[in-house]
Specification:
By secondary structure, the chain is α+β, with helices and mostly antiparallel strands. It is built from 9 helices and 5 strands.
Amino acid sequence: MARYRGPRLRITRRLGTELPGLTTKIARRQYGPGHAAASNRRFPKLSEYALRLREKQKLRYHYGLTEKQLLLVYKQANRMGGDAGRNMIELLESRFDNLLWRAGFTRTIPAARQLIAHGHVKIGERRAKTPSQKIKTGQSFQLNEKCLAREDIRLAANNPITEPPSGLKIDLDKMGVTVEALPNREQCPIDVNIQKVIEFYAQ
């Protein structure tokens, strides 16, 4: 299944939670999308499968992954040993597009992905073009000189959507980041029951 490109508020309303990586907008209506939900004005009772699916969808839409990509993350997390849920979150948090967003340089993860894909970000001295690549502790990245004067990037950097993780050393003058420690499970910016996600894939 392709990456989602439809209405973003519809997703946050359907899942009943904010997904800051997907959109900065906040739904005014506290019920699901559609006429049936508008008449009931409440979320229906969900089956166990639906609960697991909803938690999985939170990860998928927040981090902007396809179904295949998220499945590959789960399989890799399982092979690592230990707590698969914690491994899964840490793998997602170490993605390049996510860290660029967590540093506050863009308003959403799709915007971070676009910056990287267009060649506006460097890892060390080399231009990066792969949003999904994993960043390791000790690596650094920065925006190129053409981006330093962009008003939208400056506004985002000075007013980040979420508090940047303590392990990211951010230089707002040079628009660069040194990764001293990768974000962990406790620093995940969304409310997700990761155990339900593991159960979804394990069933």
